[in-house]
Design a protein that fits this description.
With 140 residues, the chain is an alpha+beta fold. It folds into 2 domains: 76 residues, 2-Layer Sandwich (Alpha-Beta Plaits); 54 residues, no CATH class. It is 47% helix and 19% strand. The chain has 5 helices and 3 strands, in the order βαββαααα. It has a 3-stranded antiparallel sheet. α2 crosses α4, α3 packs antiparallel against α4 and α4 crosses α5. It is flat.
């Protein structure tokens, strides 16, 4: 049986909580993911982490994903870029790391132009207007 090469952890946070309380939950997720990776023999420093944030009415569903081995290579290769709502959720969750890193984590490798174009299209299809800004700050 093949060994897994990725792990995912979800938490739902209330949007009405203070920013500090929400950040504490996200920090706990990172700590827990690292501990679980160590438990199964994976070096947490050799893993690529990707956040995804889905907005609901009064809450956000935050997902921390860890990729290593073949999954990490596939993620960073640009072979299977995210599209649609998955792309928006990934860009929202990772936009704070900069456009280059966010493009890579969304599966676009170093192709920032294609990433920006796909994100713009996905936002238009979802009815979100981010065309007026060059950064991801409005989306985040």
């Amino acid at each position: 049986m093949p060994r897994p090469t990725q792990a995912h952890l979800n938490r739902t946070v209330n949007k009405n909580q203070s920013l500090e309380a929400r950040q504490k939950t996200l920090s706990q997720m990172s700590y827990y993911m690292g501990a679980k990776l160590l438990e199964v023999g994976i070096d947490p420093q050799a893993v690529t982490y990707r956040w995804s944030v889905k907005d609901k009415q009064t809450e956000q569903i935050c997902t921390l994903s860890a990729f290593w081995g073949s999954s990490r290579k596939k993620l960073l290769s640009g072979e299977e870029p995210l599209t649609g709502s998955e792309l928006i959720d990934c860009a929202r969750g990772n936009g704070y790391t900069g456009v280059e890193n966010t493009a890579s984590l969304c599966g676009y490798a170093a192709n920032i132009k294609d990433f920006q174009s796909a994100l713009k299209q996905a936002c238009e299809e979802a009815g979100l207007d981010i065309a007026s800004t060059k950064s991801l700050s409005k989306l985040i």
